[in-house]
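re: ur question from the group chat, yeah i did fold both. here u go
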Amino acid sequence: MLSGILLASLLLQDPTSFRSLAPAEPETRTVAIDEVLAAQARLKIGDTLSLSAQPGVSGENVIVGAIVRRAADPSEVARGDLRVWMHLDQLQRISGYGDRVDRFAVQTTPDADVASLLERVNRVAFGFRAYRSRDIAVETSRTFQVVSRFHRAIGIITIVASSVFLLCIMVLKVEERRREIAALRLMGISRSTVVRSIITEAAVVAVLGSALGILLGWAVSLFVNWHYQAVYHTPLRFSIVTGPVVAVAVALSLALGIGAGALASLRLARTPPLELFGR
């Protein structure tokens, strides 16, 4: 009888007063995703995802809270990884790693003695080793160093080949003006004046060629960056036309042009005018 009265009194009470007795719903946590993943999966901020370490298995529901733009990192260009940033405890639970880690980074103050810190850590370390971030960057950039040396070798071969080609072109152009040079010599124009005029003309042609080459290189650089940034989904610039590169190119062009003009003009300037006429 007493239990029935108590049950009836509980049923008659406001059910909202018992909400605190029910287990609280777990709060859905947020994660950040890579911009490439967002583009490929057509995801946006606020969408709900299910994260699991195994494909096809129902996992933990999360909400996309941010979309991270990719950095210009050469080491990640060809990897094709799609990244998800989550809370540490969440990552440990989903991956099943627990307290284990593959690597971690320690940021030091600007005035810290990094060398002594590395020595102390490696002296007491067991199962791992500490490295400077710059040393890791050098080790992971070996491929790019090989590519850089390959490009340098191609550049040197191109300069040598273009020098020979330019010299041949200048010799042929000057040979075509044999009669003109002979007429100038017979009119009393000195040999040095003839040589200077040919060298000046060669320098002007070299400057115009340099300007055309810079414009062509700039256009090709824009096309290369546009194409490969779209292919690899990265803001990394694959081709850069810098001021020092332009200065070196113009200086080489002038030196090679003046040198080729001087060699070609001196060869004809030493020949007697009547011999230039073919007599």
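okk and heres the other one u asked abt
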Amino acid sequence: MRPWRVRATRTTIADLYVILAVVVGAWRIRATKTTVVGLYVVLAVVFGVVVGHLNLPTYWQLLRFGRSAHAVVLRTNCDNHASVFYRFEVQGREYEDSGSAGYGNPDCRELKPGHRIMIYYVPSKPDLNIPGEIRERWNNELAFLALAVTIMPLIVLYGIFRKEPSR
């Protein structure tokens, strides 16, 4: 079983935007440089925490303690985030899980039941596993996090402080 995770969706991000707009409107905050920079830093931290805690803790454990192994593909659901369902064995015990294809493994459409793929797992917790090369996933997640903490606060601030055209 995977650790509990919160998924940041468009709805939660939109809710955050609405809350910020109400707070800023209620406080009648003026768009001074200090206010904008301060809100940018707060938003960057919030987005970093929200987005960063989704996959980074799992990837970090796999990066530090993970071992690679081969798994056997049971089935795929390529229309659902390139999902691949697989089985692998650790110390005589079988585990089944799923994840997204790629990251060093073949594309989902190329995988068939019985194909072997690479996975990473934590030896003390084999339920903590993921298909593909963990370093590639880690780097991809860091790039996404960097974009989220730099671009999303700018979009939110623009939405809050933009001037409505006069009619």
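fwiw on the second one: The two ends are 57 Å apart (CA to CA). The first helix runs from residue 10 to 27. idk if thats what u expected
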